[in-house]
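Field: COMPLEX_INPUT
Field: COMPONENT_COUNT = two
Field: RESIDUE_TOTAL = 774
Field: MODE = joint
Values follow.
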Amino acid sequence: MIKKVLVIDDNEQDRKIAERYLKKSGYSEIVMAINGQEGLSKVNSENPGLVILDTMLPDIVGFEVCQKIKESKGPQAPLIIMMTGAVDAVDAVRARQSGADDYCVKTADGGPLLAALKNISEKDIGPQT
Amino acid sequence: MPTLEKTNRIPITTKFILSFLFIAILPLIISTYISYKSSREALRKEVSRSLLAIADNKINQIEAYLNAKRDAVEGLSYDADIIDILKKFTVAYNNGGIESEEYNKVMAEYKAFLSYTQRSLGHTDLMLVSTDGNIVFSANKTELRSLYEIALYDKNSKFAQAFIMAKESSQIQMSDFQYNPQRGKAFIFIAAPISFSGNFLGAIVVEMDNKGLSALTLDYKGLGDTGEASIAFKEKDLAVFITPLRFDSQAAFKRKIVMGAQEGRDIQRAVGGESGSGYAIDYRGKNVLATWKYLPSFRLGITAKIDVQEVFTAATRLRNTLVEFSLLLFVMVLAIALFMAHSIANPIKELTRVSSVIAGGDLSARATITTQDEIGDLADSFNLMTGNLIEAKASVEQEREKLKEQKKLLEKANQELDSFVYTVSHDLRAPLRGVTAFAKFLEEDYLDKLDAQGKENLREIIKGTSRMNILIEDLLTLSRISRIQNPYEEVDIRGLIDSIIERVKFDIKEMKVELNIQEGLPSVRCDRIKMSEVFLNLINNAIKFSSKNNKSHPRVEIGYADTGEFHQFFVRDNGIGIDPQYHQQVFGIFKRLNSSEEYQGTGVGLSIVQRVADDHGGKVWIESELGKGATFYFTIPKVLPEKPA
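Field: COMPLEX_OUTPUT
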């Protein structure tokens, strides 16, 4: 069962919204990173079980961050949900190609994120136990 | 049949030449012919008249010559001395013959006188003949006496004939000419009877050769190069010339014309007893203008004639001059015609050539015609026109260039606007999301802690955020429609509509909307995604309006018409309708004629419809009146415009 979740997002409000829905879904330990670089180092230092990754980061493109995490950690890599504020929902394919485990759009009510988390928790049962 | 037309085509140059020749040559030929004819007639009359005068004169000379000869002999027959001499010779001859002393005495006495008389009259012989036909005297007695004796018994002898006729008629007689082969000459005999106191005593007979007559006929004065006079007598069926001819010096008594022959018609008529004048064929077979006369007392035919060719030499010369002149004129007229034709046709050809060059697109072509006439003016006007055309084209080109630039600018501005709208909408979404989320969290976490006013305020915040969300989503949809170009494909419109109906079937069922879709909708080449936006918006619109206005029987109708160039679709509702004054406005962004409370949506839907129709090169419009429902039409061209790159 995942304890620690890393949220990588440059938008403070989005981080807070994500945090609320993560907590609502039962994740208690949540760490934040505000750009790709920080995110990558925190993946190593904090060793989270799940990463919520924004597609648009100020320094490194989210997909690249995703790819790097998956490549560097190999089988021990955390699960990754990519989250986007973009309108055009064409990034799903790219997200999958980058190795993301799920994908959702940012909304105020957090519906897509909750759905993704539910998906993930079902997946999580496998390797973590 | 273009080839036939081609062959029937007569170039303008040929037409000019033909008409010019027709106008100029025809009168020339006619006038030349008439003047030749009339001059020829005048000349012919003139020449004929003078020739006939000369011929008459010639004939008169000959007749006068013969008459003089005869008169001289006749004079001698009445001479008392001659009568006396004849008596004496007759007596002496009868008494002892020519050998007798008496005869020699008479001879000695009168020989000199008679010989002188013979020579002075120009006769070759002078004879005295007794009543019984004996020649009792001859001036050339030694040579001819014996011949006369024989001749007297020869009934064909001209000499004898002359004597006998004179004796029988008691009148002077002339024999025909007779050729004497021994002497190589022809002779004529003139016999005049001599009487005394009513008794016939004998005759004086002179022998005359043709020398005198020949001298007359050999004088060609006034008869030109071919004119001559000729004399002939008739011997059986022959006309025998007695003098040399101009073109046959050996003709005398050798040249004979058979009566009835083609040649020598003039002399045939003369010896045949006719007198007259006109055209004839002479002994050479040549056409001559002749006059002929018969002298009955001499039984001689005389003609005077001249070759027609010579008579008309002047006329021929005139004709040649006229023909030469006409030919010269013809050549001149032809040259002028050619010049005129070319001077008119060449500029026209030049203009035609230049205009076809210009028609081919080369506006720099210019007509190079400098003539100072209407054609020159035409060429100037033409060049001016072409110049204006270039200017006009240049200004059109300039305008087009300007328009292109403006269009580019507009497109750029539009793109920028679209991109701006997108960016703004996108960037607005993040903070809006924050506001919405935290308002929601506030509601979730603290609603109980707020009083009534606080609760009301929070609800207004949430309402506002939700409206703003819709606005921003609409804006993004609209800008997406503009930004994204999908490839054109063949779209089955009925299938497309069915899939849209599937998406809105909840509303249809809820509002109890009666939906009519025309059968046989076509397949249309278009952007499938955009086209589905169009139908979605129109159908949504129609459902919304018809159900609001006509709650008992909301009805939506979808139909199609083929207008040739375009596919024309319509979506009709039986809603409240739209006042025509707002028909243009409704397609603007966020134009909504109804209060937002009553109708959902922001009105961006019709803007999307318009944008899609514009993108495809089609149109969209409304037919509606307030209270009577509305029909939204839109067209898609069958041949789509190029997609922007």
